[in-house]
């Protein structure tokens, strides 16, 4: 074996181990910076030596493969469903049935029932061969390229694994990552995802695995399938899987009786709310694999396992009416107005109906008695209709075809669930929503002007787009409801002060669809002025780092409108910052792109604040505390001992002030 190959293999082994520590065992030992450096080294070597390509190399995790149509694969071992139970009696009945079929004491493994998308992974000689969705249980979709990007799925096993086996598990999207994804979507004016489970299963079917790699999915394993597995019980198989490198949650517990099973259930019925991901029940499995074999399967499910579903809190109430809301982007959301009812400790009066398809699918009609549930989501949802209580004269809901606010014919683009009102410049809630966005804290941050006042100003005909704010006079606003001399002064002054808000935030404030805070920053940095952004073609925009086709299209569409151009020109004439200031432009580079830097100690050449500004101006990020994410530390004199210790422990490099300045050539 030549030395290059050895080097590649060694790097792969090392990165694999760090990956396992970080994503499976939750205990990192090297900094992200060092990890990235090693990964980059490996990438470079692999690029130069394609003869050593390995589809399971840690470099393959970032994705990139695009699948147009997922291939259908037949499961070697069928993926069964589970029978459900809802009470102690159900479980006791189950035990009685089992006891007739097997001899001896029966032990149970109790596990949590993770709510995600089920997956079957096949390993051959310790290497991930394929990942297939459950499909109809007999055959599913080959989603290997996508699953490989999930960091907690080992691509290469360790220890005494069997030569060939399947392992089943659930791909979930933990709440934290889910909420973060939604915050980002809301910020760019897109509909938030409804729940983690659908988002997880949707992610598996994305065509671009690079997109999947960006989603914080996790894979939790619970079942070994195959022959000669070298284990005798379900509980041991969980432990073994853990040793081979799989992520197996440690909630699983052995129970010697149904009473002990119930203790587990009762415990988790309360404590599940503090888990990082969704669970919808418990799965009880006969522990002995010998027993499992004797029990076998029904047409649909194993006899040796039983799911116990937690009661979601659910009530039924009358649907009084359906109203339609228009958002700032023109998206229409149907809302169910309910007869007020107590649910999970709060009074519920409204529920989201999501879109036209949902109403049609559930055939929801005004006057119906509907079932309402409060699950992981914030807004309660309607599960269905109690048809036994339906009025004989009830008529199917006809979705509105015109905007409830401006009467414009609604449109619905192919592939989109939502209807939109296209009357961008004449639809009140859109106008108000856009101005409210313009003045919001992260945008123009106009002191003394609130959302309600904006609505009033629009209704009174004083403003009809955000550029009108800059010509408002005190005399015009004083007559408004609840407006005193002082607050009118504050309002006018606040508007005037917003002329100092830097360009990147103005760009965000314009409310271009898909242009959130970060995208606005990127565009501002790249183009430096609104004129350059306006002049950019779609191809031009796509070439900017992290700007995709959807954003590019939206930016071009925005500036294709004469009205928008007029508005921007007016803003310009009032002195709003529509280009980077001289001060901002000076000394800006991307040298530190991707670096997360901690500054600590006392400095001699420049001040600490100057250092921080230098970092940001050159594309880096300043962080106040040392973590595994820190790239390096700029250490001045008298660095604290605890910081020093932490840096050593996490292997984070220290550099001096002068070396840092040298790096930037200042
Ligand atoms: P159901 O879809 O309601 O029939 O429930 C069966 C599904 O529960 C299986 O296909 C698995 O995807 C999922 N599941 C979640 N957690 C577990 C677990 N610990 N053991 C077995 N199945 C589980
Ligand atoms: Zn409208």
Overall description:
The protein has 666 residues and is an alpha+beta fold. It has 6 domains: 3-62, Helix Hairpins (Orthogonal Bundle); 84-309, DNA ligase/mRNA capping enzyme (D-amino Acid Aminotransferase, Chain A, domain 1, 2-Layer Sandwich); 312-423, OB fold (Dihydrolipoamide Acetyltransferase, E2P); 428-500, 5' to 3' exonuclease, C-terminal subdomain (DNA polymerase, domain 1), CATH 1.10.150; 503-585, Orthogonal Bundle (DNA polymerase, domain 1), CATH 1.10.150.20; 596-663, 3-Layer(aba) Sandwich (Rossmann fold). The protein is built from 25 helices and 20 strands. The protein has a 5-stranded mixed beta sheet. A 5-stranded antiparallel beta sheet has the order 14-13-12-15-16, with no helix packed on it. Strands 5-4-7-8 form a 4-stranded antiparallel beta sheet. A hairpin with a 6-residue loop joins strand 15 (369-374) and strand 16. Helix 1 (3-24) runs antiparallel to helix 2 and helix 16 crosses helix 17. The chain is globular and about 90 Å long. The relative contact order is 0.07. Bound molecules: adenosine monophosphate and zinc ion.
């Amino acid at each position: 074996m030549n030395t290059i190959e050895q080097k590649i293999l060694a790097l792969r082994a090392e990165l694999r181990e760090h990956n396992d520590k970080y994503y499976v065992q939750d205990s990192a030992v090297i900094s992200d910076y060092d990890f990235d450096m090693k990964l980059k080294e490996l990438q470079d070597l692999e690029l130069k030596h394609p003869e050593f390509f390995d589809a399971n190399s840690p470099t393959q995790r970032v994705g990139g493969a695009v699948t147009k149509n997922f291939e259908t694969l037949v499961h070697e071992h069928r993926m069964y469903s589970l029978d459900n139970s809802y009470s102690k009696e159900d479980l006791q009945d189950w035990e009685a049935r089992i006891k007739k079929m097997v001899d001896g004491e029966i032990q149970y493994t109790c596990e949590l029932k993770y709510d995600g998308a089920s997956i079957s992974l096949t390993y051959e000689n310790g290497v991930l061969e394929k990942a297939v969705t459950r499909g109809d249980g007999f055959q599913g979709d080959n989603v290997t390229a996508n699953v490989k990007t999930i960091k907690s799925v080992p691509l290469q096993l360790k220890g005494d694994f069997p030569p060939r086996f399947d392992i089943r598990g659930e791909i979930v999207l933990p709440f934290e990552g889910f909420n973060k994804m939604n915050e980002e979507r809301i910020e760019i004016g897109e509909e938030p995802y409804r729940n983690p489970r659908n988002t997880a299963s949707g992610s598996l079917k994305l065509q671009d695995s690079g997109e999947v790699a960006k989603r914080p999915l996790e894979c939790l394993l619970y079942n070994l399938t195959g022959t000669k597995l070298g284990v005798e019980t379900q509980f041991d198989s969980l432990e073994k899987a853990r040793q081979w490198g799989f992520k197996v949650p440690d909630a699983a517990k052995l129970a010697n009786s149904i009473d002990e099973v119930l203790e587990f259930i009762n415990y988790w019925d309360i404590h599940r709310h503090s888990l990082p991901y969704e669970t919808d029940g418990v799965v009880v499995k006969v522990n002995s694999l010998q027993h499992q074999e004797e029990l076998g399967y029904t047409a649909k499910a194993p006899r040796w396992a039983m799911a116990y579903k937690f009661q979601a809190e659910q009530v039924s109430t009358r649907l009084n009416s359906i109203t339609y809301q228009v958002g700032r982007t023109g998206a229409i959301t149907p809302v169910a107005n309910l007869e007020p009812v107590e649910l999970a400790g709060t009074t519920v009066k409204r529920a989201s109906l999501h879109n036209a398809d949902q109403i049609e699918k559930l055939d929801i009609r005004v006057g119906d008695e509907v079932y309402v549930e409060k699950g992981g989501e914030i807004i309660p949802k309607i599960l269905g209709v109690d048809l036994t209580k339906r009025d004989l004269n009830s008529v199917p809901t006809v979705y509105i075809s015109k905007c409830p606010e401006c009467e414009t014919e609604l449109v619905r683009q192919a592939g989109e669930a939502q209807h939109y009102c296209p009357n961008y410049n004449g639809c009140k809630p859109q106008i108000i929503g856009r101005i409210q966005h313009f003045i919001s804290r992260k945008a123009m941050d106009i002191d003394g002007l609130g959302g309600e006042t904006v609505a009033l100003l629009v209704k009174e005909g004083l403003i009809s787009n955000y550029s009108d704010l800059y010509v408002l006079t005190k005399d015009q606003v004083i007559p408004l409801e609840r407006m005193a001399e002082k607050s009118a002064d504050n309002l006018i002054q606040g508007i005037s002060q917003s002329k100092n808000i830097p360009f990147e935030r103005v760009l965000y404030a314009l409310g271009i669809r898909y242009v959130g805070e970060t995208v606005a920053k990127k565009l501002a940095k790249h183009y430096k002025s609104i004129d350059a952004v306006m002049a950019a073609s779609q191809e031009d925009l796509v070439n900017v780092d992290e700007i995709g086709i959807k954003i590019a299209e939206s930016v071009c569409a925005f500036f294709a409108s004469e009205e928008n151009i007029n508005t921007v020109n007016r803003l310009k004439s009032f002195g709003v910052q529509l280009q980077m200031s001289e001060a901002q432009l000076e000394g800006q580079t991307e040298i530190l792109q991707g670096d997360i830097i901690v500054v600590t100690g006392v400095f001699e050449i420049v001040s600490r604040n100057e250092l921080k500004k230098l970092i940001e101006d050159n594309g880096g990020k300043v962080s106040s505390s040392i973590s595994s994410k820190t790239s390096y530390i700029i250490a001045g004199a008298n660095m604290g001992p605890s910081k020093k210790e932490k840096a050593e422990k996490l292997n984070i490099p220290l550099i001096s002030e002068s070396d840092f300045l040298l790096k930037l050539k200042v």
